[in-house]
């Protein structure tokens, strides 16, 4: 009788094949969940990056409006630099007027896009309606009114006069963000006339 109880206990457990089938089903389920999560995560990274970029553009615009100084010296411009050479990041810079009158670029911050998001394209529409796709672009806001200027030469240190700056005004900028391995994209648009930033 004791031997029969032991045999009954063995019959109540799982066989090796049952365990393997259960583990295979769980692995398949896990794979499906992870695939769906990855497809959801890609567009989320792009959305977060676009929102963060729009916020940083607005923050730089606010710095110009508040006439925030650089290293104790007055700032002439605050710029954001976007480049296809380093598409996974962008730089925030300032042009500072020193006591000797020199203007130079002062790097404030380098911002890296999260989740392998990159700048896929830079589209500049100038005030005459001409469209270009520069490899590098600086978006600048001047003190004290926050006027927006866009320079595809990526060198605002040469724009020392009001007339030189006027040639760079009233343009429209579109930054197309994408993520490798997904088809999702987002566009951040900057209106050079109003300084308004929108996301599409």
**Termini gap:** 77 Å
Structurally, how many domains make up the residues? 1
What is the count of helical runs? 3
Unreliable spans? none
**CATH architecture grouping:** 3-Layer(bab) Sandwich
H and E string: HHEEEEEEEHEEE
Percent in strands: 25-35%
CATH topology: minor pseudopilin epsh fold
* Count of DSSP strands: 10
Radius of gyration, CA atoms, in whole angstroms:
27 Å
Main sheet: strands, sense, barrel: 5 strands, antiparallel
**For the residues shown, what is the average pLDDT?**
84
| Highest-level CATH class | Alpha Beta
The helix/strand class is: alpha+beta
Query: What general outline do the C-alpha atoms trace?
Result: elongated
Please describe the topology of this protein.
Blueprint: H1 2-11, H2 16-65, E1 75-83, E2 89-97, E3 103-112, E4 117-125, E5 131-132, E6 136-142, E7 148-151, H3 162-166, E8 172-179, E9 185-191, E10 197-199
In short:
This protein has 200 residues and is an alpha+beta fold. It has a single domain, classed as minor pseudopilin epsh fold.
Question: What do these coordinates show?
Answer:
- By secondary structure, the chain is α+β, with helices and mostly antiparallel strands.
- It contains 3 helices and 10 strands, in the order H-H-E-E-E-E-E-E-E-H-E-E-E.
- It has a single domain, classed as 3-Layer(bab) Sandwich (minor pseudopilin epsh fold).
- The strands form 2 sheets. It has a 5-stranded antiparallel beta sheet. A 5-stranded antiparallel beta sheet has the order 5-4-8-9-10, with helices on one face.
- A hairpin with a 5-residue loop joins strand 2 and strand 3.
- The longest helix has 50 residues.
- The N and C termini lie far apart (77 Å).
- The model has no long low-confidence stretch (mean pLDDT 84).
């Amino acid at each position: 009788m004791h031997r029969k109880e032991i045999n009954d206990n063995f019959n109540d457990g799982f066989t090796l094949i049952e365990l393997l089938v259960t583990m295979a089903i769980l692995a398949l389920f896990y794979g499906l969940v992870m695939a769906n999560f990855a497809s959801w995560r890609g567009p989320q990274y792009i959305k977060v990056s676009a929102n963060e970029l729009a916020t940083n553009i607005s923050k730089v615009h606010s710095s110009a409006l508040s006439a925030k100084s650089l290293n104790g010296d007055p700032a002439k411009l605050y710029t954001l630099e976007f480049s296809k050479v380093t598409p996974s990041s962008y730089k925030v810079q300032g042009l500072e007027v020193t006591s000797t009158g020199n203007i130079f670029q002062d790097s404030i911050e380098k911002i890296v896009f999260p989740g392998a998001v990159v700048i896929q394209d830079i589209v500049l529409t100038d005030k005459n309606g001409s469209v270009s796709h520069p490899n590098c672009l600086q978006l600048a806001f001047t003190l004290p009114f926050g006027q927006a200027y866009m320079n595809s030469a990526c060198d605002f240190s040469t724009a020392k006069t009001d007339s030189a700056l006027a040639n760079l005004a009233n343009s429209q900028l579109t930054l197309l963000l994408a993520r490798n391995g997904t088809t999702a994209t987002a566009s951040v648009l900057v209106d050079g006339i109003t300084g308004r930033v929108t996301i599409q």
